[in-house]
Amino acid sequence: MREYFIKPKIKSGEDSLDCLKTLKYSSYLIVTDKAMVDLKIVDKILEKLPKDSKVKIFKDVTPNPTVEIVERGLKEIVYFSPQCVIGLGGGSPIDACKGILYFNLKIEDELKIKREKPYFIAIPTTSGTGSEVTSYSVITKGDKKIALANEEMLPDLAILNPEFMKTLPSKIIADTGMDVLTHALEAYVSTIATPFTDSSAKEAIKIIKENLVNHFNNPQLLLPRENVQYASCMAGIAFNNSSLGINHSVAHSIGAKFHISHGRANAIIMPYIIEVNTKAWKKYSELAKLLDFNPTDDENGKNLFNGFVKKLKENLGIEKSLKDLGINFEEFKIKIPEILEDIKGDICTEYNPNRLTDEDYIKLLLKIYFGE
Ligand SMILES: NC(=O)c1ccc[n+]([C@@H]2O[C@H](COP(=O)([O-])OP(=O)(O)OC[C@H]3O[C@@H](n4cnc5c(N)ncnc54)[C@H](O)[C@@H]3O)[C@@H](O)[C@H]2O)c1
Ligand SMILES: [Fe+2]
């Protein structure tokens, strides 16, 4: 049996923050990072919250949030006991916020504390993870990234305000935009994809083709900025219902071990995953058709689609391989057995179109390292 589940309510547009004015809660915990405070994005939220409410700001989240950061945030939520929690920032603060909420609920359950679950609002400031509409949270433990999935972590409200993306450095636009493409692509070729998930995945892929490079070159232009934000959210809705694939499993492991941003890791890996997912070549070919290439057969369609991905990466200044990124081969080689274990234990691996053997994975990892 398959399931399609839609939540949260989504407010979008330049005036979307105004919905905060209607909230009636008396206490708010904002989980964010230092950049959001420095860029005064936090101030924009504070301006809209009810004047007489109590607000606490936890701004210690760092990129690729760790278990230790979640534990620190947990202390804040336990002591403050807010009625509403706001995750503000890129995927890192929103995921950390989800982790904090989830472990807080677990503690309350274990101790049989009967308290209403705080209302959870997610406000993304990158167009990438789609975390504002997913029940996933990715937390780093040592040199491993652990993807958690639980409906309790799904926000109640997502606010998409394109104004916040104006300050994004172009490198982050490139990385997070490629994360969007990876989500949509993996959702589309997933073994549990449905027409529901296909529709938002396909639309997100089209939007990325038509807008990402323009947004990267002109972050001040509203239309491409807003479109990429919609694509990010739609790709999130798609993969929340059809799961991801080994592009993400490999990126989680390599990203954590070599400190590569999530979107860049996904982008470097993508062309090699497309080649190895032979069972999805027909679907890549369908996407080539969607993007107005004219495939002659499935293999040609897969090649055309992969050509589009490679060109997009080039336009965004993304490396072709881990070697190009400057990673030392000896350090990479020594970690291969651990990477293999990580991939096989990652929840994203289950619904990938092809099942790979250890030997297949090793060959794939070597290609990702050296490039073609
Ligand atoms: N929950 C999910 O479903 C899901 C899916 C994919 C990835 N992830 C996880 O999300 C994390 C990555 O999130 P991300 O790619 O959004 O990046 P991020 O949240 O780590 O942010 C990257 C950098 O951009 C800065 N930044 C964010 N918004 C900005 C803005 N508007 N202006 C200027 N600077 C800004 C941040 O301060 C940070 O330094 C990873 O941990 C990844 O594993 C989660
Ligand atoms: Fe991702």
From TrEMBL:
Residues 174-368 form the Fe-containing alcohol dehydrogenase-like C-terminal domain. Keywords: Oxidoreductase. InterPro entries: ADH_Fe/GldA, ADH_Fe_C, Alcohol_dehydrogenase_Fe. SUPFAM superfamilies: Dehydroquinate synthase-like. GO terms for molecular function: alcohol dehydrogenase (NAD+) activity; metal ion binding. CDD domains: PDD. It comes from the Bacteria. Pfam families: ADH_Fe_C, Fe-ADH. Residues 12-162 form the Alcohol dehydrogenase iron-type/glycerol dehydrogenase GldA domain. The keyword Oxidoreductase applies. Belongs to the iron-containing alcohol dehydrogenase family. This is Uncharacterized protein. The lineage of its organism: Bacteria, Fusobacteriati, Fusobacteriota, Fusobacteriia, Fusobacteriales.
